[in-house]
Design goal:
This protein is α/β, with parallel strands linked by helices and about 375 residues long. Helix content is about 40%, strand content about 10%. Strands 1-8-7-6-5-4-3-2 form an eight-stranded parallel beta sheet. Strand 5, helix 10 and strand 6 form a beta-alpha-beta unit. Helix 11 runs parallel beside helix 12.
């Protein structure tokens, strides 16, 4: 009996995705912050493999090939020298080999082929040129039977989503599409609900959002999408892979956390706790979201928190839970009495973590435009 595909699994219950790649690999010294391109698949494949393994151990049902920003036009953008030595095809081939090797070590893990937005769209080069860039991304995934579905993510314009989905359909695999939008809509002024409807009508089996906004804003955005889809009589599965940081100040700004002066290299004080992620997972599931993962800032322990919170619905705990008890339960074994008192849900659910930085603002008063 073959493994169940993405749509079969979503019909049965929640699917847990993986988390941050470019941000995490940048911190580990494998990705250059700025271009954020994935040549690590060729230069440092072991670093990529290790992060895949960590997400899988934490409970991810899906491993996404590390192909974010692998388009040829992105590799040459703004003088990026990587485009002189590697191509989109090279990187996607290497990424597929890496993720296939790691997935084979796990239990029934799905492999996702990821596509990302093209600079050609922003430069106004038109549908034909943009779709050529998407075709380059898709062609490697199309011929690999181990790639279970395709994801077009981090899209800022629903028109580009439609062009991408049209190209991806030729691969004959399930399609997910997520946009980097909040409650106000896309970069062209298309409202959030209409974006969801247009993605579904274009042929996406799974629609939703990723990156740029925090968990609370993401819940508001996905609720807008769900309402619009229900009103249009459409029922794709819902997906959200939010930012791993708190940033309520930017909820109504079109480029989200990019407007924060601490982005991208000083975001750590805003990092979500595992308990934030548990609360988000439950709220998203109750809202109807069935594919839950994370984007920039979502570390493996955040994915474990998703998987543990949804364990009753999924029918299992992740392997990483062998070394973890919910709500700090393992603190019962601490040698310190005051620590033992923190072993339980009441302490952690009601805790308001301090910033620990005297004279620092709770929220930013100045946001870059």
């Amino acid at each position: 009996m073959g493994k169940k595909g993405l749509l079969e699994r979503l019909a049965e219950g929640p699917v847990v995705g993986d988390g941050s790649y470019v941000f995490t690999l940048e911190k580990r010294g494998y990705v250059k912050g700025g271009p954020w391109t994935p040549e690590a698949t060729i230069e440092n494949p072991e670093g990529v493999k290790q992060l895949h393994r960590e997400f899988m151990w934490a409970g991810a049902d899906v491993l996404q090939a590390f192909t974010f920003y692998s388009t040829d036009d992105k590799l040459h953008l703004a003088g990026n020298l990587e485009g002189e030595s590697v191509t989109c095809h090279d990187q996607n081939e290497a990424a597929c080999k890496i993720v296939q090797e790691v997935a084979a070590e796990g239990d029934d893990v799905l492999i996702c082929g990821g596509c990302s937005p093209t600079p050609s769209y922003m430069e106004g080069k038109g549908k034909e040129v943009v779709q050529q860039e998407f075709q380059k991304q898709v062609e490697v995934f199309s011929h690999r039977k181990e790639v279970d579905f395709l994801l077009c993510e981090f899209m800022g314009h629903v028109e580009e989503c439609e062009w991408a989905i049209e190209t991806m359909k030729a691969a004959g695999k399930p399609i997910a599409c997520t946009m980097r939008i909040g409650p106000k809509g896309d970069q062209n002024g298309v409202l959030t609900g209409e974006c969801a409807v247009r993605m579904a009508k274009a042929g996406a089996d799974v629609v939703g959002i990723n990156c740029l906004y925090d968990i609370n804003t993401s819940l508001k955005t996905i609720e807008i999408m769900k309402t619009a889809l229900d009103g249009a009589g459409l029922s794709p599965y819902l997906m959200t892979q939010p930012l791993g940081y708190h940033c309520p100040e930017v909820e109504d700004m079109l480029e989200g956390y990019f407007h924060l002066p601490e982005a991208p290299f000083a975001m750590e004080p805003r990092l979500l706790t595992r308990f934030d992620v548990q609360k988000f997972a439950r709220a998203a599931y109750e809202l109807g979201v069935r594919y839950l993962g994370g984007c920039c800032g979502f570390e493996p322990y955040h994915i474990r928190a998703l998987a543990e919170e949804l364990a009753p619905e999924r029918g299992r705990l992740p392997k990483a839970s062998a070394k973890h008890e919910p709500w700090g339960g393992a603190l019962k074994g601490s040698m310190f009495e005051f620590m033992r008192k923190r072993a339980g849900r009441e302490h952690w659910e009601n805790l308001k973590p301090a910033l620990g930085r005297p004279d620092h603002p709770v929220l930013q008063n100045y946001l870059d435009e």
